[in-house]
From TrEMBL:
tRNA processing as UniProt keyword: no
Molecular-function annotations in GO: metal ion binding; phosphoglycerate mutase activity
Gene3D superfamilies: Alkaline Phosphatase, subunit A (3.40.720.10), Metalloenzyme domain (3.30.70.2130)
Species for this entry: Candidatus Thiodiazotropha endolucinida
Entry keyword Magnesium: no
Family: Belongs to the BPG-independent phosphoglycerate mutase family. A-PGAM subfamily.
Coiled coil: none
BP terms from Gene Ontology: glycolytic process
InterPro entries: Alkaline_phosphatase_core_sf, Metalloenzyme, Pglycerate_mutase_ApgM, Pglycerate_mutase_ApgM_sf
Protein name as catalogued: Cofactor-independent phosphoglycerate mutase
């Protein structure tokens, strides 16, 4: 009988990079001395991974969805709202429409709202009291809305009612177009009656929230303390909870996700994976890497596949801090040592690349490796963008990378591509 192996996929968020002038044109990974990752590369296979298509930058949710085993088609349809909702535990109402929102600081004029701060000063206390003050809002037409606090200024809007549509525009203009103020929610197709009804309910709600929150004690206190009040919300990414079955569930693998990041945890919960998180997993520079690796090892006792997600690499890129990213890679390299043994398949990859020169996600392919103690060796001697160019995995997409890893684990015996919703 075929012996299966367990696997750990280490996702280093925003890992791949571009040349940094201060590093003589090397990327942070190329400039970092990472003996453990180099050892895995030397004893395994390397390659370059495109999340969706070569050259197309993607967001974290897209990159993670693909690595978590969703097809491209399902990944591209998945809205941010339901991911965020799942991240705060709202994952059992598949009729409701969910939006990903921010508390924001608004100022009302006659016929418009200026956005003074898109994140209400990154408010991190009092948001439960603000959402409780909103309660259940009856918007007419049988539509009921409620707000649910997430991390800091993030908040989830839930709308319930018959005949709601996700096919509407955002009220958040985005940072770049902040000067436009709060946008009016519009149906994407003016002849779509469900979208017209939903958009007009969203617009009513924006006004009600502003009225209710402007005089709230939390906001009066914030104004007294020279902090921007959280007197409104801006929303985007509406959608319903998806009915999808990722590849790992089709294969009946038990799967765990170790992360401190709410989008990643939300996705894991949506897909039915077991979540392991802790206050010390901060999704930031100060995350406890050793505790995460310890949790990974214990999760392997009763899971076939464990995803270990580390956010800090991406945060350093967005902060335009290449030295921080390189130092973080040294710490990660040191922390993963206890994972390496002669029976575990280990993959290292990322959801996307992030350029630390600009802080922007890029469409560059992701340096990636798969180490199988009983697998092939391709002659790559280190783990870096440059070395991965010549690796035996070649240049593949994220779905192909996941399949390659599962194949190394001997877990694809029952995989039938024809019957599967997992389409490459
Ligand atoms: Zn990311």
């Amino acid at each position: 009988m075929l012996t299966t192996q367990k696997g750990v996929m280490i996702i280093l968020d925003g890992l791949g990079d571009r040349g940094i002038p201060a590093f003589g044109g090397k990327t942070p990974l190329e400039a970092a001395d990472t003996p453990n990752m180099d050892g895995l590369a030397s004893a395994g296979q390397c390659g370059l991974v495109d999340p969706l298509f070569p050259g197309m930058p993607v967001g974290t949710h897209t990159g993670i969805c693909l690595l978590f085993g969703l097809s491209k088609q399902h990944t591209m349809k998945l809205a941010r709202g339901p991911i965020e909702a799942s991240g705060v535990g709202l994952n059992d109402n598949d009729q409701a429409l969910y939006f990903r929102c921010n508390f924001a600081t608004l100022k009302k004029h006659k016929d418009r709202y200026d956005i003074l701060d898109r994140r209400a000063g990154r408010i991190n206390t009092g948001t439960e009291s603000l959402t409780a003050a909103i309660g259940q809002v009856d918007l007419g037409d049988g539509i009921i809305a409620s707000l649910h606090p997430a991390t800091q200024h993030r908040v989830v809007l839930q709308m319930e009612g018959c005949g709601l549509s996700h096919d509407i525009s955002n009220t958040d203009p985005g940072n770049q177009f902040k000067a436009k103020g709060l946008l009016t929610c519009l149906p994407n197709d003016p002849s779509d009656s469900a979208a017209v009804k939903t958009a007009s309910a969203v617009n009513r709600l924006m006004e009600i929230i502003y009225e209710k929150l402007s005089e709230h004690p939390v906001n009066r206190q914030r104004i007294d303390n020279n902090l921007p009040p959280a007197n409104g919300i801006i929303c985007r990414g509406p959608g319903t909870l998806p009915k999808v079955k990722p590849l790992l569930n089709q294969l009946k693998l038990t799967t765990a996700v170790i992360s401190g990041e709410r989008t990643v945890l939300g996705l894991g919960r949506l897909l039915g994976y077991d979540l392991f998180t802790h206050d010390r997993f901060t999704a930031d520079h100060n995350t406890d890497l050793h505790a995460k690796v310890k949790t990974t090892i214990s999760a392997l006792d009763d899971h076939d596949m464990v995803y270990l997600h580390i956010k800090a690499t991406d945060i350093y890129s967005h902060d335009l801090n290449p030295t921080g990213k390189r130092e973080m890679l040294l710490k990660i390299d040191d922390a993963i040592a206890p994972l390496i043994n002669d029976s575990l398949v280990i993959a290292i990859t990322a959801d996307h690349c992030t350029d630390t020169n600009t802080g922007r996600h890029t469409g560059d392919p992701i340096p990636s490796l798969i180490y199988n103690p009983r697998g092939r060796v391709d002659g790559c001697l280190e783990f870096s963008e440059l070395a991965c160019n010549t690796g035996g995995l070649g240049r593949i997409n994220s779905s192909g990378f996941l399949l390659s890893m599962l194949d190394q684990m001997n877990q694809l015996e029952n995989f039938r591509p024809k019957d599967s919703v997992f389409i490459l």
